[in-house]
Every structure is written in structure tokens, then in C-alpha cells.
Design goal:
The protein is α/β, with parallel strands linked by helices. The protein contains 8 helices and 7 strands; from the N terminus they run ααβαβαββαβααββα.
Length: 229
């Protein structure tokens, strides 16, 4: 496994780099996810960044309990500075690839410009582990870049990946097929909105609960226990 990307060096300037490249479009894309969290009681955020989304979330829904997995200590510092003292947030300063996800805990997963940091190989391992941490019918809300297979999108994405690979050691060189990976792990897209002329996309996915899957998992666990004895 490659070392986790290190965003400490760009954390303080990340907001201004974002504004210079896209204006407020990335913020609009992230914040478009917030209405989908109105009924969520327990939320997991993967790769929060500098805390702007989390601050808006806890102000809109103060009773929501939030777990944040973020590997950059500098980003976590900026996030804590932005939060009200009464916010019910638990921070996990760890690489998500190595985190032990709890079982069936969350009503919603939020990942904003997080999945694009990883290769398909990494995500094929990570997505099932995330999926196992949600309750039946949970939502996965994601904001990501979208490859529209146009010259404009190819140029933007190539430039962004070059910059972040140079500045942070990002493991990925291009967008992974997020939709295929989620749908292959029993998620169904139920909403989508585009920004920046189609270069950015905010999506809502719903976990499609299949009792048969849990039965099979239960049988596998029993078989494992029997084999050990």
C-alpha cells in the first residue's frame, strides 16, 4: 500500500486554490448534499478537508452525531477552528484505508472530493468496507469531479491530478469508475446534480438492503467458527 497523500502542505491555502480555480462551484457542489442529511442521526464523513462542509452541517442539524475520518492533521486543525464548541463530532485522525469501520452504524456517508484520491484497486477494497458500516437504507452522498470525455474536462483533470500528485503524493492519476464501484456494492443512485458546466457532480446513492446478503454473511461466519473448532 502506498503512503497516504499528505495534504498538510496545502491545507492553509486549499480554500484559496479552490476559489482561484473554480470560484464557489466546489462549495455549491458540496452544500447541495446537505438537504439529504435532514433525517440522519449518525453520519460518517470521509476526508472532510478544511471543515467548511462540516461547519454548515452542524449548524443546520445540531443534533446530528458525526464521525470524521481525516488523515491530514493540518486539515483537522482548521476544521476544529471552524466548529462551534457544542458540535457533536468525533475525529479519527487516520488513513481511511487502514481504519476499522464499525458495523452497521451510520445513516449516511459523506465523501466530498475523496474517492478521486484513490486508484480503482484501492477503492475495490475500501468501498465494501464502507458499505458494511451503514444501516439498511442509508445514503451515500458524494461530491466529485465528473469525466465528461470532453477536451475541457480532460485538460482540467490532467492539470488537477498533476498538481496534487506533485504537492501531496496522491496515489491516483485519473478518476476511478465511482458509479460502477458503488452499484456493484448494492448502492443505487437516486439523485444527481451537476455544477461548473458538468465538471462537478453531487450525487445521492441509497443502500439497497438485501436480506439474503446478511444470511449468506451469517452462514459464512458460522462456517468460519466451525472450522476454527
Amino acid at each position: 500500500m502506498k503512503p497516504v497523500a499528505n495534504f498538510n502542505g496545502v491545507a492553509r491555502y486549499y480554500r484559496w486554490l479552490e476559489y482561484a480555480a473554480f470560484g464557489r462551484e466546489l462549495e455549491r457542489c458540496r452544500f447541495a448534499l446537505l438537504p439529504h442529511l435532514a433525517e440522519a442521526q449518525q453520519v460518517l464523513i470521509l476526508g472532510e478537508g478544511d471543515g467548511r462542509f462540516l461547519r454548515r452541517l452542524v449548524k443546520m442539524y445540531p443534533s446530528t452525531r458525526v464521525d470524521v475520518v481525516e488523515s491530514s492533521m493540518r486539515m483537522l486543525q482548521l476544521t476544529r477552528e471552524r466548529l462551534p464548541s457544542e458540535a457533536s463530532v468525533h475525529f479519527h485522525p487516520v488513513d481511511a484505508r487502514r481504519w476499522r469501520f464499525p458495523d452497521r452504524k451510520y445513516d449516511a456517508i459523506v465523501s466530498c472530493f475523496f474517492l478521486d484520491c484513490f486508484t480503482p484497486k484501492t477503492l475495490r477494497d475500501l468501498v465494501p468496507r464502507v458499505s458494511a458500516s451503514v444501516k439498511p437504507g442509508a445514503r451515500w452522498l458524494l461530491a466529485e469531479f465528473a469525466d465528461e470525455h470532453t477536451l475541457r474536462s480532460r485538460v482540467w483533470l490532467a492539470g488537477l491530478y498533476w498538481f496534487f500528485r506533485t504537492a501531496t503524493g496522491l496515489e491516483s492519476r485519473q478518476l476511478a469508475p465511482f458509479g460502477e464501484l458503488l452499484s456493484g456494492n448494492e448502492w443505487q443512485r437516486v439523485g444527481s446534480e451537476t455544477f461548473a458546466g458538468g465538471l462537478l457532480r453531487a450525487e445521492c446513492w441509497r443502500e439497497m438492503f438485501f436480506p439474503r446478503r446478511d444470511v449468506v454473511c451469517g452462514l459464512n461466519k458460522l462456517a468460519k467458527v466451525a472450522a476454527e473448532h
